[in-house]
């Protein structure tokens, strides 16, 4: 696997809101363009600029408030797959109780981190169009960037959008849709109201379709988005939107990962990875730091109460998901903090094939794909024989297979099971999961306030 240290290479493409605005009437001796930064006024002019810009787009996803720990952990805290046991009581702690308020700092930080990632991709897409060097792989570069943008909008829509009953319903709420970069204060920074869920969905599909058409699987480098990764994201999105036939069609096009069926059932092995965010000891995340105690960590998180009991007898994943120490073996690198984060796994594709097949009446395919996951986990073949029973088993396998990767809450939402599952378990705050408006996360308070309500809050917050 090729390892790329994104953060060390991304300085040239890092975009801040006011980039390029701090240049004053300087003496010529000091008014020198830095070699490791690119002003938004100068833009990209070479294929090397664009290559650095693309690395900056990946680097934005590694932010600690995004996929460096904040986003997937927030999602799993909401779903009670993770239990907050540390001192972040007013941020992660309230999220874990489903008492998230619009002024929760983590809500604002994650929202900003995702939009910062989108802004970097927007800038790269704008500037890369200007590069005429025939050696510049423009379509591949833009295909990766558009897949990354789609991924971020999928995450925004999944957490803040849709309807209380799920996704893809008439009148579903969207998020502000920005498809051009913000590089200077003025018209570019004018408030943008929320688009509808359908409008955001159309943009996501357009980006992923472009990526699928212009990417290849190349040398199989899992640190970069490939055609298979884009196809898997498209299948994920269609499953989430309950378009099961389309989810099945896209999942079928994903290239099979060699050695998957016989690989260890850990969810962290290379044969399972389609796209990972790769970290290093100089480009770190906080997963292990939050999971493990000192020395090396602060033990903010433990497995959710009752999560161990959800594993069937003999399930090999139990020792990974709930380690004897009360932590997890998915994230263990407390010294270097370089555990990879799985953005797309082949196990998810297999489970998408199974669920979409069951939902469209192909029970034989559903059973075959489901048993691939069950067998790898050390379980006997499924005993389910009807579509509803197969789907229930598939959803359980998704929960156990994709643990701590930020998926279960969205499975509960898309199947309209938040209240029926989480509302029946005694929570720390009575009835917290029976308030259906909380199925949508609150828009950060400052976004509503500084736009004078142009960005509307989700109902009842």
TrEMBL record:
<comment type="similarity">
    <text>Belongs to the SusD family.</text>
</comment>
<protein>
    <recommendedName>
        <fullName>RagB/SusD family nutrient uptake outer membrane protein</fullName>
    </recommendedName>
</protein>
<dbReference type="InterPro" id="IPR012944">
    <property type="entry name" value="SusD_RagB_dom"/>
</dbReference>
<keyword id="KW-0732">Signal</keyword>
<dbReference type="GO" id="GO:0009279">
    <property type="term" value="C:cell outer membrane"/>
</dbReference>
<feature type="domain" description="RagB/SusD">
    <location>
        <begin position="327"/>
        <end position="461"/>
    </location>
</feature>
<dbReference type="Pfam" id="PF07980">
    <property type="entry name" value="SusD_RagB"/>
</dbReference>
<keyword id="KW-0472">Membrane</keyword>
<dbReference type="Pfam" id="PF14322">
    <property type="entry name" value="SusD-like_3"/>
</dbReference>
<feature type="signal peptide">
    <location>
        <begin position="1"/>
        <end position="25"/>
    </location>
</feature>
<dbReference type="InterPro" id="IPR033985">
    <property type="entry name" value="SusD-like_N"/>
</dbReference>
<keyword id="KW-0998">Cell outer membrane</keyword>
<dbReference type="InterPro" id="IPR011990">
    <property type="entry name" value="TPR-like_helical_dom_sf"/>
</dbReference>
<feature type="domain" description="SusD-like N-terminal">
    <location>
        <begin position="97"/>
        <end position="239"/>
    </location>
</feature>
């Amino acid at each position: 696997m090729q390892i790329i240290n994104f953060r060390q290479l991304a300085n040239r493409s890092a975009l801040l809101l006011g980039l390029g605005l701090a240049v004053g009437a300087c003496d010529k001796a000091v008014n020198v363009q830095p070699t490791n930064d690119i002003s938004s006024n100068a833009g990209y002019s070479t294929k090397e600029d664009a290559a650095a810009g693309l690395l900056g787009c990946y680097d934005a996803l590694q932010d600690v408030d995004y996929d460096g720990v904040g986003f997937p952990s927030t999602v799993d805290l909401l779903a009670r797959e993770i239990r907050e046991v540390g001192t972040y009581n007013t941020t992660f702690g309230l999220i874990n109780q489903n008492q998230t308020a619009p002024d929760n700092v983590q809500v604002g930080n994650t929202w900003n981190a995702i939009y910062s990632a989108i802004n970097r991709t927007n800038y790269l897409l704008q500037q890369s169009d200007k590069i005429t060097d025939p050696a510049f792989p423009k379509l591949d570069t833009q295909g990766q960037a558009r897949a990354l943008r789609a991924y971020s909008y999928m995450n925004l829509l999944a957490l803040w959008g849709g309807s209380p009953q799920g996704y893809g319903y008439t009148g579903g709420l969207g998020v502000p849709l920005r498809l051009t970069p913000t590089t200077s204060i003025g018209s570019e920074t004018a408030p943008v109201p929320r688009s509808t869920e359908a409008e955001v969905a159309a943009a996501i599909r357009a980006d992923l379709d472009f990526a699928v058409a212009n990417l290849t699987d190349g040398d199989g480098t899992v640190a970069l988005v490939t055609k298979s990764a884009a196809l898997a994201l498209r299948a994920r999105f269609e499953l989430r939107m309950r378009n099961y036939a389309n989810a099945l069609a896209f999942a079928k096009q994903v290239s099979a990962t060699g050695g998957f069926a016989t690989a260890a059932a850990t969810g962290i092995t290379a044969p399972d990875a389609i796209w990972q965010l790769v970290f290093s000891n100089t480009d770190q995340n906080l997963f292990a730091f939050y999971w493990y105690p000192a020395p090396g960590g602060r033990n903010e998180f433990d497995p959710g109460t009752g999560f161990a009991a959800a594993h069937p007898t003999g399930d090999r994943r139990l020792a990974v998901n709930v380690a004897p120490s009360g932590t997890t073996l998915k994230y263990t690198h407390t010294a270097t903090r370089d555990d990879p984060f799985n953005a797309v796994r082949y196990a998810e594709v297999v489970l998408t094939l199974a669920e979409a097949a069951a939902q469209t009446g192909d029970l034989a395919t559903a059973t075959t794909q489901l048993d691939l996951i069950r067998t790898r986990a050390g379980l006997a073949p499924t005993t389910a024989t009807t579509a509803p029973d197969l789907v229930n088993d598939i959803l359980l396998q998704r929960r156990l297979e994709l643990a701590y990767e930020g998926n279960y809450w969205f499975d509960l939402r898309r199947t309209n099971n938040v209240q029926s599952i989480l509302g029946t378990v005694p929570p720390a705050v009575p009835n917290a999961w029976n308030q259906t408006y909380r199925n949508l996360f609150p828009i950060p308070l400052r976004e509503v306030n500084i736009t004078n309500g142009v960005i509307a809050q989700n109902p009842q917050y």
